[in-house]
Design a protein that fits this description.
Layout lengths: L15 H15 L11 H8 L3 H13 L3 E4 L3 E4 L8 H19 L4 H14 L2
Antiparallel strand pairs: 1-2
Length: 126
């Protein structure tokens, strides 16, 4: 992945680290970044976006907490090889969900609120 493909929206209420982690999460979900692929270094992303490296480090830490990436000391951060492979239909579902989640977060809803609301709607539609 090229760090220059990332962007920061200064008008978004979403913290910068969350914007970065969501963009990377989306790229992984879409298959733009393959399992085992090395992510750009924290320093490269920080330089490309003119950010403090701690902000980028926080984004990477969030991705690691989610199990999407793994850091190998001295070698870099890589997309986890243990994640399950997505089918094309799941990839399409992720592509539909990303803008919805981004918009809901921009409106100030927490992740648990978004997930809870979607789960409630799914239960009602059975």
């Amino acid at each position: 992945m090229d760090a220059r493909r990332l962007f920061v929206d200064d008008t978004s209420p979403l913290p910068v680290y969350a914007q970065i982690s969501e963009q990377m999460l989306g790229a992984v979900a879409r298959g733009d970044i393959a399992s085992g692929e090395r992510l750009p270094s924290v320093r490269d992303v920080a330089a490309a976006l003119a950010l403090n490296p701690n902000t980028v480090n926080r984004a990477y830490a969030e991705l690691e907490r989610l199990g999407v990436v793994e850091t190998r000391r001295g070698r870099g951060t890589f997309v986890s090889a243990h994640r399950t492979r997505r089918t094309p239909s799941v990839t399409r579902l992720v592509a539909m969900a990303e803008p919805f989640v981004a918009r809901a977060r921009a409106l100030g809803f927490a992740g648990q609120q978004i997930v809870g609301t979607v789960a409630e709607i799914v239960r009602r539609k059975k």
